[in-house]
Design a protein that fits this description.
This protein starts with 8 loop residues before the first strand and ends in a 6-residue tail after the last strand. It has one domain: NAD(P)-binding Rossmann-like Domain (Rossmann fold, 3-Layer(aba) Sandwich), CATH 3.40.50. Helix 1 links the parallel strand 1 and strand 2. The model has no long low-confidence stretch (mean pLDDT about 95). The protein is about 45% helix and about 15% strand. The protein has about 250 residues and is α/β, with parallel strands linked by helices.
Length: about 250
Amino acid sequence: MTNQFEGRTALVTGGSRGIGKAIVERFAEEGAKVAIIDVNEKALSETAEELREKGYSVYAKAASVTERDQIEQATQEIAETFGSLDILVNNAGVIRDNMLYKMTDDDWTTVMDVHLKGAFYASRAAQRYMVKNNYGRIVNISSVSALGNRGQANYSTAKAGLQGFTKTLAIELGKYGITANTVAPGFIETEMTKATAERIGVPFENFVRDRVSEIPVARSGKPEDIANAVVFFSDERSSFVSGQVIYVAGGPKN
């Protein structure tokens, strides 16, 4: 690994498991000081300890992206602890899948709050420090579900909303040296996709096999595949890339 992020601080929301954890690990390996916000206190503690044992600088805080005060306090603490807040990855997410006629108000609101309100709160808080330093990278984690997916009216809408949010951030913040981009994963093997398989009553191995049969590169995605794309957008050398959506799905998406 290189030290391409040496001197930079990266905050990853929902960074204690799955895709978020892979992103945090990649930033740490590349020299960044890393910060994690998550509501899963057990996973958060375990991930932070793993990273510290490897000698990495880590800030970890149990906080919800849907609570404005918690996010603003965390970003302030991160900037004070590490001296800057250079990279924000809005990764925190939940699923409450159901067909529209079965979807409850709470199913809808919970998904909207975590994905959209959460990204809004975190981005608004982080940009204050980025604007001050005239440098920043914001990367939002969307999904191929933004293009529509049965049983995910809430999730699809939220992930599509993140793409519009990204493009607007790119327009507003570009003059401050801040870029905003989106990574939209396809099928990635995580706890979330395991939960989807369980919901529809299919063994995960069968679920993976069926999905792989539809993927041009003939394999499932891994969290590291998403981390690679996030690192590209976060690179100082990617300063002319902003407002973009890249589908990391093993093949083209319309």
